[in-house]
Design brief:
The protein is mainly α and 469 residues long. It contains 19 helices and four strands. It has a two-stranded antiparallel sheet with strand order 1-2. It has a two-stranded antiparallel sheet with strand order 3-4. The structure holds arginine.
Amino acid sequence: MKGKGKQATWGGRFSEGPADLMLRIGESVSFDRALARFDVQGSQAQAAMLAHVGLISGEERDALQAGLAAILAEVEAGDFVWDMALEDVHMNIEQALTERVPAAAKLHTARSRNDQVATDMRLWFRDACDRLDASLCGTLSSLVELAERTQSVTIPGYTHLQRAQPVSMAHHLLAYVEMLGRDRTRLAAVREQANVCPLGSGAIAGTTLPIDRAFVARELGFVDAAGNPRLTENSMDAVSDRDCFIDFASACATIGVHLSRMAEDFILWSSAEFHFVTLPDTFTTGSSLMPQKKNPDAFELIRGKSARLSGNLQTLLQMVKGLPLTYNRDLQEDKPPVFDSLEQSLLMLDCVAACLPGTVVNADACARAVADPALLATDLVDHLVLRGVPFREAHHVVGAMVGLSEKLDCPLDALPADAVAEVHSALGDEDWRKAFDLKQALASREKPGMPGPETVAGRIAYWQSALSE
Ligand code: ARG
């Protein structure tokens, strides 16, 4: 009888064990063993609660907790033998405990794997959000540090990937800082949502036994700022709710989109056509055929992996959408996507953080690109507006000058005075050429959110202090 005797917890009503293929499709221990730490933590709290309400003795609690600690030590040392026939991390640990501690038979009192796995995952999400936040901070710090180095490097800003208006490279980089800053907020919200205790929901309808849900919630740190326990309010929701999974995967997908856009900028900037930056050898690769190549693979892979992150979110949304309440085994498939999202997001963030310090900014190439006077055509419009020309008319006038510059093959700021004077009377004196002072153009942009050097420096200082908290 295949598998018979190995699976310990639900075999009572079966006369035959599962087929090998059933074991293979049913097992999750190959991936949910990553939950061992949280499963042990949850079971230790469960034992404490059972003793607290008198369902087990103090000695039994101590034996269970010590046995669980010993199992965890084995898992962490890599000595624990996982058995696929025991399906998942929960039954593997319970079975190992059963072999060591007689009271193990009482551990699952008033508990189901449904509220157990929900609890484990909420503990996992709290930890995952903390780890991701630490990596986000690392990436933010390296971006802010590069921004600090590039405050006086002016580059063209682009819309439609066409030269638009000048900005400091710092201002451009700080755009990504704002995005990743919002990602921290999103993750904090996921953590807050995860921080609610589902234990005691049982399989679907709680239990008739005299458990203390608040006690176990406190044991596991599922408390609000004032230390009050936070409990899920509906047992059916608690065992089938996967919102945290979706919101976590969504936060990771958004981080992925932000990193992917940043990667794209660095890929463009490192091309010979832009040459704004040179990426470090340590984060690029060569070609097996073309000896001259230096490819921005790390950033390309970040761009590629971002697809995986949004795929993981899709997987979860599709998995859940047609499920009747409450728990369905489909939900076992919820873990690989979030595990993957965490590992890939950490890797992507850590790569960016490590790559930026070695990135060289090519000031000359930036200066050549930003010397294009057409970048200040809009500033010339503003100059005319200040002289009383209505905006639409001023826009049209400068448009005509751009046309003239193309026709005469002459830079916009060097157009002959007489030709310009003919375009509009407000261009009669030479004052209009002052609009092409790059330094002045940036210095005139010191309102909140603008690329003025003081404003940018203020934002850098803000982030430096926010990140040092
Ligand atoms: N390994 C299962 C999962 O991750 C645990 C819950 C099993 N519950 C059940 N009713 N079979 O979803």
